[in-house]
Design brief:
Helix content is 72%, strand content 0%. It has helices at residues 11-37, 39-48, 54-74, 78-96, 104-129. Its main location: membrane. It is found in: Membrane.
């Protein structure tokens, strides 16, 4: 595996990177699946947050999460997969988890969700930066 400047060329590093991909991508794919399984309640929440066409936005973003997460986990179309996750998080994090604009009793929950998304955005940027490198144990298709 070639992770250019990092030079992580060992079986342990390959296994750790695979585990990171599976954990990160799997959680994102699960979150995307949740958009479909709970579309009605999620659409209501999105509507309450002012999302236009929430009943269309929820399955669309669910698809971004599901396909992006699977792409990262499997090492398929890594640029597209990590890019979809990054775009999703950049757009939805301040829109859906605006802790500064909610009543005080909701601020802690929204701040926790906001910070979780920011941490995941950092992970998405790492995978985006590594998208042009060879990923061990990856399907290795696409950009």
């Amino acid at each position: 595996m070639s992770l250019a400047p990092l030079a992580l060329e060992s079986a342990g590093a390959d296994a750790a990177f695979l585990l990171a991909r599976v954990l990160f991508g799997g959680i994102l794919a699960f979150m995307g699946l949740n958009h479909f399984q709970n579309a009605e309640s999620m659409s209501g929440y999105a509507e309450m947050k002012g999302v236009p066409a929430a009943s269309l936005a929820v399955p669309f973003t669910g698809g971004m999460l599901l396909l992006g997460g699977l792409g990262i986990a499997l090492g398929a179309f890594p640029l597209l997969a990590a890019g979809a996750i990054a775009v999703f998080l950049i757009v939805t994090t301040p829109l859906m988890h605006d802790f500064w604009a909610v009543p005080e009793d909701q601020q802690q929950d929204e701040m926790t969700a906001f910070l979780k998304n920011v941490a995941m955005l950092g992970g998405a940027f790492v995978f985006l930066a590594l998208a042009g490198t060879d990923w061990a144990y990856a399907l290795g298709v696409g950009l």
